[in-house]
Write a structure and sequence with these properties.
The protein contains two helices and five strands; from the N terminus they run E-E-E-H-E-E-H. By secondary structure, the chain is an alpha+beta fold.
């Protein structure tokens, strides 16, 4: 599998997205969201930066495996931007220590 990043140009319907890849420059492929994105109901919109897996046998089709978070979003602060990354919650640990 070839893994590269790209930007969603538009939604084609029926779960397909037209993605413009960064490597090779300007190459477009038709992509579908991976099962984990569908399972956890991750929304994909035009303009989102995504990671795409492409088969070396058909470079016109791919699978979106990860949507990168926007820097200005109101999500949790200090969290990891990696899939499966965990956030340290030192506040709750300190409160537990102070109670005892």
């Amino acid at each position: 599998m070839i893994e590269t990043s790209g930007v969603i140009e538009k939604e084609q319907g029926n779960g397909f997205y037209l993605v413009t890849l960064e490597q090779p420059e300007g190459h477009q492929c038709l992509c579908r969201a991976a099962g984990k994105l569908t399972k956890f109901r991750i929304k994909l919109l035009a303009g989102d930066k995504v990671l795409v897996e492409i088969s070396p046998y058909d470079l016109t089709r791919g699978r979106i495996t990860y949507r990168e978070r926007n820097a200005g979003s109101g999500g949790p602060k200090g969290g990891s931007n990696r899939p499966g990354g965990k956030q340290n919650n030192n506040k709750s640990n300190n409160q537990k220590k102070n109670r005892n």
